[in-house]
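Blinded run. Sample ID left blank on purpose so nobody reads anything into the name before looking at the predicted structure. Input follows.
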Amino acid sequence: MDVWSDIICPFCYIGKRNFENALVQAGLTENTNIVWHSFELAPGAQTNPDASIYEDLGKRKGWSLEQSTQIHKQMEQRAKESGLEYNFDKTIPANSFKAHRLLHLAKKHDVQNEVKEILLKGYFTEGNNIDDEKYLVEAGTKAGLKEEDVYQVLKSNAIEQEIREDIESARKQGIQGVPFFVLNQKYAISGAQPTEVFVEALKKVNEELNLKNVSDSDGAVCGPDGNC
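Blinded prediction complete.
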């Protein structure tokens, strides 16, 4: 499973949780590898710990403070339906590029999903600044990464290039919004779909893979020309 998403995207956390619930229901938790790809919803966003998310997003979207607050409260309810707790009163408006750096490091050490969960919860629930290097080091070490490796990757040109490649890949595939899920490089699911939608897709892909495994087996076969 390849997933394009951004830490600051509320639907991305909901989509992650719904997909994970679908894996449990389909019995495929241990058989599915998830790769999180970078996507920037607001590349030019400025980190502002002194502003509320209501004010910040309201300005970028052209919403009034009242309208922005109402929309965020509705999103909190939507998250609750997926078993998540959003606390937008605590959310710190932040640029997510450094967080994507950490996720690319985490991928190399097979703890990407753990770091993704820590960052999403940190942003939406705990009110952490995902653009703060000290917090990112804490998040990385919590998942088992070395402190010095996190500090190094936050400055790495190579990691920055990997992020740019993810973003360019999304552009070439016509991905304009996140979350965006691609199963087995074949089936695309856009948005934070209900759990049952993911379950159906997972079962279909799993059935196809099982059929492929049977046909690729090393057992004796007979061909259409009569040779066995």
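Unblinding after everyone has recorded impressions. Strands lie at 2-5, 35-38, 180-183, 187-190.
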